[in-house]
Amino acid sequence: xxxxxxxxxxxxxxxxxxHFGLSLKCLRIPISERIGYWGFxxxxxxxxxxxxxxxxxxxxxxxxxxxxxxxxxxxHGSLTLMLIAAFFVVTGxxxxxxxxxxxxxAGLASGPRGVLKITRHPVMWGVAFWGTAxxxxxxxxxxxxxxxxxxxLALGGxxxxxxxxRASHGEAWAAYxxxxxxxxxxxxxxxxxxxxxxxxxxxxxxxxxxxYVGMLAAHAEAGRDVFPMGFF
Length: 232
Known about the structure:
The protein has 232 residues and is mainly α. The protein contains nine helices and no strands.
């Protein structure tokens, strides 16, 4: 049953617990030994999908409890964050990225380049910026719980990935961490690394713009006006 803030909070809690809980070594290894690696992956995906579906339905049915009226500046900030989120997600998936499952060896072999010099977790930060953008533009409690939960999952998941890679890749990951940063721009501002001209490819920029415009079009199709008038 959905339709209350309580149900949304419970659904969000289950979603977070299912992700972080099943990722714990004390649960993951015994379950994998019993049902196999792919059996565990299937179970993990099924639980995550069910929890996310419940959370989404709970969010759509939740009452509109206003926390603040988003000023125009917040709406412009939301649109800007969405563009940054699109850039991080697109470039994070199209650059050899050792933080993504299946790209570990290729990403470590090629070293940090492009967006990975900005942050070693561009996809997770993209999700976090996406969630934050929606909280800023919405201003109601349901959005804070739903999108805030996704933001917490993304950043907590990034920290968890760091811990797993340290354990599985040892010195190679330590060297990669030393060159990069968790916080966007941290390694660049500290002088540990710099972005060279052409590292972000033109087609990645084009895909970013296409993805961003597509998200805006999807909002318009759903009847949600995301373009604020004026600046104050």
